[in-house]
Amino acid sequence: MTASPAPARQHTVADSPYGPLTLVATDGVLAGLYMTGQRHRPPEETFGTQDPGPFAEVLRQLDAYFAGELTEFDLPLHLHGTPFQRSVWAELRRIPYGETRSYGELAELLGKPGASRAVGLANGKNPIGIIVPCHRVIGASGGLTGYGGGLERKQRLLSFERGTHDAVPALF
Fold first, then answer.
1. Phi/psi of residue 121, each to 5°?
2. pLDDT given for residue 149 in this prediction
3. Which of 7, 46, 48, 154 is most buried by a 10 A CB count?
4. What does the alpha-carbon distance between residue 11 and residue 106 come to, in Å, rounded to a whole number?
5. What is the pTM of this model?
6. Who's near 43: CB < 8 A, 6+ residues apart?
7. Exposed/middle/buried for residue 148 (C-beta within 10 Å: 0-12, 13-18, 19+)
8. Inter-CA distances, 73 with 106, 110, 135, Å
9. pLDDT value of position 151
10. Residue 38 and residue 60: Cα distance in Å, rounded?
C-alpha cells in the first residue's frame, strides 16, 4: 500500500489597504489568508512554492471587496480544522457584510449556548481572514475584542464595511 502524495501547496503575497496578505492554496483551493504579524500564522515554510497561478479569482474578488463593490465572497475554500471549528467558520460566513455578532450569539446559533469561549477560540484559529469574516465578531458588550490581525485592523475593516472608513486613519 502506497501513501497518498502530500497535497500541493502554493502561495502568493498581495498588497491590500490592510498590509500585505499571504494567500495559501492547497491543491489549487484557497486554504489560508494571513496578515503580517497575525496571531496563529503558520510558519512560512508550510506555505509551499510561490506561485500566483491558483489565486486569480481570489485576487479579483479581494480587489472588488476593497473597492467596495463586493459584499459576499463566492470562492471554494479548503478549511482545515476540527468539526466544531468548521461549524464556527461556516457561521461566520453567514454574518452579513457591515454587521456584527457576539461570541455568545454565535454559540446560540450553533445550538451551544454555553460555548462562547470555545467559539472565540475557533474564531481566533480561522485560517482565511477577511473572506471568512472573523472581524465581524465582537464582545457581548459590543466592544472590540481580540483579533488575530490586531484590533486596529479589525476596527478599520468594520469601519470600511459600515461605510465610515474615512474616519479611521490608515495604519499600514
1. -65, -40
2. 66
3. 154
4. 31
5. 0.88
6. none
7. buried
8. 20, 22, 15
9. 75
10. 23
Catalytic residue, candidates 62, 122, 131, 134: 134
Strand bridging mode 49-50 / 9-14: parallel
Count of CB atoms situated within 10 Å of the CB of 33? 24
Cell numbers at 158, concatenated: 468594520
Contact in structure between 22 and 59 (CB atoms under 8 Å): no
Indicate if 77 belongs to the active site: no
Alpha helices in 52-168, H assignment, sequence order: 56-66, 83-92, 103-109, 116-124, 151-161
Q: What does the CA dihedral 44, 50, 55, 58 come to, rounded to 10 degrees?
A: 30
Phi-psi region for residue 29, left (φ > 0), alpha (ψ -120 to 50) or beta?
Answer: beta
pLDDT in the model for residue 1 = 58
**Which helix (H) or strand (E) is 172 found in, with range?**
none
**Cell numbers for 123:** 474564531
Element (H, E) at 97: none
| Cβ 48 vs Cβ 8: under 8 Å | yes
